[in-house]
Amino acid sequence: MIKVTLLIILFSSCGYHLRNTNLGEQYQSVDLTIESRSLLKRPLLRELLASGVKVTEDSDVKLVIKKDRLVKIVQSVGVNNQVQEYRLEYDVQYTIGDTKPQNVHLERDYSFDVQEIAGGQSEERTLRNRLAQDMARAIIRQLSATVK
Fold this sequence. Notes:
Blueprint: H1 2-13, E1 29-33, H2 41-50, E2 54-55, E3 62-77, E4 83-96, E5 102-111, H3 117-146
Parallel strand pairs: 1-2, 1-3
Antiparallel strand pairs: 3-4, 4-5
Helix pairs in contact: 2-3
């Protein structure tokens, strides 16, 4: 307990503060335009609500997801001519209000063993969901950085 208190005092005395992601001060409500089947839709809604933004269809501020693309790329092939590693690349382009389009790019590599195909598919599904969560957080961070 004393160590935690000392760390808090140390961080606050050196000027370190966590970044404020409360977008609700700048954007009270946002109209989110995103494909209904997008992997990003739920995580982005959660992150917007958690950052204090009300998501409604009658808002003057429009958050439009223009590009939402997740691509699976072969990264390496083994000596037996079977894929051993894949890369998932996630690209999103969005606009908020009348600002210029912003781009976010994330990528993750993962190994694949054809002997454990069920586990590999489960790992890929989990990785896709985590990428969507990370993408939602990255968008919120970008929006927070532009709000001063």
